[in-house]
Design a protein that fits this description.
It is a single chain. This protein folds into 3 domains: 105 residues, Urease, subunit C, domain 1; 133 residues, Roll (Diaminopimelate Epimerase, Chain A, domain 1), CATH 3.10.310; 190 residues, Metal-dependent hydrolases (TIM Barrel, Alpha-Beta Barrel), CATH 3.20.20. With 542 residues, the protein is an alpha/beta fold. The mean pLDDT is 96. The longest helix is centred in the last third of the chain and has 19 residues. Helix 11 links the parallel strand 16 and strand 17. It is globular. Keywords: Hydrolase. This is Amidohydrolase. GO terms for molecular function: hydrolase activity, acting on carbon-nitrogen (but not peptide) bonds.
Length: 542
């Protein structure tokens, strides 16, 4: 019988001017017809009609990079994003712990602080958290998730002492003159010992939480999302959720460098495929080469305006050697997997382009030219680097929301020229690249319409207009979060546009993003999210 969706403006995104009156969906969850209501009714005689009340409809939004399992932070951690001082962080954590009745066997977690927004203009130290508790471990993580702070109790439980050396690709903060730890940790290599203590204390019940985790994406119109750094235990959890039929949306996972990624794939062979099973599959492998620009750890070729402690020649550092990065990239290519790589600074971008080419040239995989490697974040990628990406078939996935949330910090940290061209979507478009836009959830909520708004308008929170030459059109931005996302995953035959034969993944919006004033794109509301013809989220039922 199928369904006939009508009374809406359907925007197929096959062409900037393409519009339709109706979409007919077959019993198989695929689009049977896109066009006039009259023809849809003739072809779908007996189909259930769904009146969309004059809304606008676009293809399901495709998240090209986030951390799905990290969305737990929204459910289990104190939200520190509105804190403007150390005192507010302490008070927020105290209230959170009291409300949740967290005792010595538990853990107090907070996420989302940003030193750029604190009156102290620096990262908190352990004294801020010791004021919350000396008996319960406390860990707060920076909005970038690349750094965090532990109290003394957590340092003790993790076995981190003043004699603990800094790990390769990470750093522990130390007090001036004493060498004692101040509780600060930088990059995953330094933070992982804390997570080894805190995660078991959270009492995770994924079967109970998976609905709320998915809602975080579905309320933003996302029908396909990513788990962009999947640990072995999380791979097993996701596989179990898929087998139990608890996933409503498609989730693509990427096992992370630093673990036995091949063992993770081998332990879950049915999901190591281009085909989904229970809405889950592995998409490839993930590595990271540097840190966060707003945290001053993105690896640059030219110094920041001012580095930590006023350092004038600070360029930060890489997290992997060329040899290690080349070996990991070659392992991905040899095993016929796509490689995703976290790359914020332009020095890290140089390294990725260098090592990927070397790994590809050394590989005997006959399909090595078609694997669509992805540079994740691209905050300071240069024009020549986008041109090189086009040459080697690499896709830039751009964290465009940085423009609004940290554009002012980038202007301070990089100066007007480099800071003004962050998230250079214009260069990517001119290079002919199928660039995508992401929000790196849980760094930010998976609001891809806001990411599109940022790429189109390029305005910061303080009202600064960043380099207008890097703007893209609303159509280009909407393609970036639909068709280009599908292309990045190798799923362009099934997703990304409204066309016959593709999956009926749709987003119902209160306004047409190609018709409103471009400044209003992020104000558009998601009314419903439809996966393979079934409504899996309604705003009026949220």
């Amino acid at each position: 019988m199928g369904k006939l969706f009508h009374n809406a403006t359907f925007i197929p995104l096959t062409d900037e001017d393409a519009r339709a009156e109706a979409v007919l969906v077959g019993d198989d969850g695929r689009i049977a017809y896109v066009g006039t209501v009259e023809e849809a009714r003739a072809l779908g005689e007996g189909a259930e009609e769904v009146d969309l009340g004059g809304a606008a409809v676009v293809p399901g939004l495709i998240d090209p990079h986030s951390h799905f399992t990290g969305s737990l932070q929204y459910l289990l951690f104190a939200d520190l994003s509105a804190c403007t001082s150390f005192a507010e962080i302490t008070e927020t954590l105290r209230e959170f712990a009291a409300k949740r009745h967290i005792g010595p066997d538990g853990v107090i977690m907070g996420n989302g602080y940003d030193q750029n927004n604190l009156v102290e203009q620096r990262h908190p130290d352990k004294s801020v958290l010791n004021a919350v508790s000396t008996d319960i471990p406390v860990l707060i993580t920076h909005v970038s998730n690349h750094m965090g702070v532990a109290n003394d109790r957590l340092l003790e439980l993790a076995g981190i002492t003043p004699t603990t050396p800094d790990p390769e690709g990470g750093r522990y903060g130390r007090m001036d003159g004493t060498g004692d730890l101040d509780g600060y940790a930088e990059e995953p290599a330094a933070m992982n010992p804390f997570y080894a203590v805190t995660t078991p204390r959270l009492g995770l019940d994924f079967n109970a939480m998976i609905g709320d985790m998915q809602r975080i994406y579905l309320e933003h119109g996302v029908t396909t999302c990513q788990d962009g750094a999947t640990a072995p235990d999380m791979a097993a959890v996701m596989a179990g959720l898929a087998k139990a039929g608890l996933l409503k949306m498609d989730i693509v996972a990427y096992p992370m460098w630093g673990t036995d990624v091949m063992a993770t794939l081998a332990a879950n062979p049915e999901f190591d495929s281009q085909d989904y099973h229970g809405h889950f599959r592995f998409g490839g492998l993930k590595m990271f080469l540097d840190g966060s620009p707003q945290g001053l750890t993105a690896w640059m070729t030219e110094p920041y305006v001012e580095g930590p402690d006023g350092e004038r020649d600070w360029v930060a550092y890489g997290t992997m050697t060329d040899d290690d990065a080349t070996a990991f990239a070659k392992a991905a290519i040899d095993s016929n997997h796509q490689l995703l790589c976290h790359t914020n600074g332009d020095a890290a971008a140089d390294q990725l382009l260098r090592v990927y080419e070397a790994a590809r040239d050394a590989s005997d995989n006959p399909n090595k030219m078609g694997l669509r490697p992805v540079m994740i974040h691209c905050q300071t990628a240069r024009t020549d680097q986008y041109e090189k990406m086009a040459e080697i078939g690499m896709i830039p996935s751009i964290f465009s929301s940085h423009i609004w949330y940290w554009g002012d910090a980038h202007l301070r940290n990089f100066g007007p020229a480099r800071g003004g061209r962050v998230s250079a979507c214009g260069d990517a478009a001119r290079a002919g690249l199928p660039f995508t836009l992401h929000t790196d959830t849980p760094v930010l909520r998976p609001n891809l319409l806001e990411a599109a708004w940022c790429a189109v308008n390029r305005v910061t929170k303080a009202g600064a207009q960043l380099d207008e030459d890097q703007k893209v059109t609303p159509y280009q931005a909407m393609r970036a979060i639909t068709f280009n996302g599908a292309y990045q995953y190798g799923e362009e035959a099934d997703k990304g546009t409204l066309e016959a034969g593709k999956l009926a993944d749709l987003v119902v919006l209160d306004r047409n993003p190609l018709a409103v004033d471009p400044r209003e794109i992020r104000d558009i509301k998601v009314l419903a999210t439809i996966k393979e013809g079934e409504v899996i989220y309604r705003r009026d039922e949220a």
